[in-house]
Amino acid sequence: MWFWSQNSVEYEIFKQYERALVAIGIDFSLEEVQMALEACTYGLEDALRSTIDYVLWLQKNEKSFFPNAMRD
């Protein structure tokens, strides 16, 4: 699964947000999720933060969401 080396900036950024993403239901074992992460290096931190913020907004406003159906 790991496409970033453990000493890369991308890996460090990912590890900062990994627990929050798992908590909102993101399944990192899915190939689509892995491909999206691998393709997103520029703006990675903004993308992860925005995903978390969006899901929290959906939950706060009692909107349905399907964690692994989120797209660009």
How does this model look, in words?
This protein is mainly alpha-helical and 72 residues long. The chain has one domain. 57% of the residues lie in helices and 0% in strands. Helix 1 packs parallel to helix 3. The chain is globular and about 40 Å long. The chain starts with 8 loop residues before the first helix and ends in a 12-residue tail after the last helix. The mean pLDDT is 84.
Q: What about the largest sheet?
A: none
**Helix content bin:** 55-70%
Class inferred from helices and paired strands? mainly alpha
Shape: globular
Rg is 12 Å
Number of domains: 1
Distance between the termini: 21 Å
Number of helices: 3
Low-confidence stretches: none
Mean pLDDT: 84
Strand content: under 5%
- List the helices and strands in order: HHH
The counted number of beta strands is 0
Give the tags.
72 residues, mainly alpha, globular
Topology (SSEs and partners):
Elements: H1 9-23, H2 31-39, H3 44-60
Helix pairs in contact: 1-3
Summarize the structure.
The protein is an all-alpha fold.
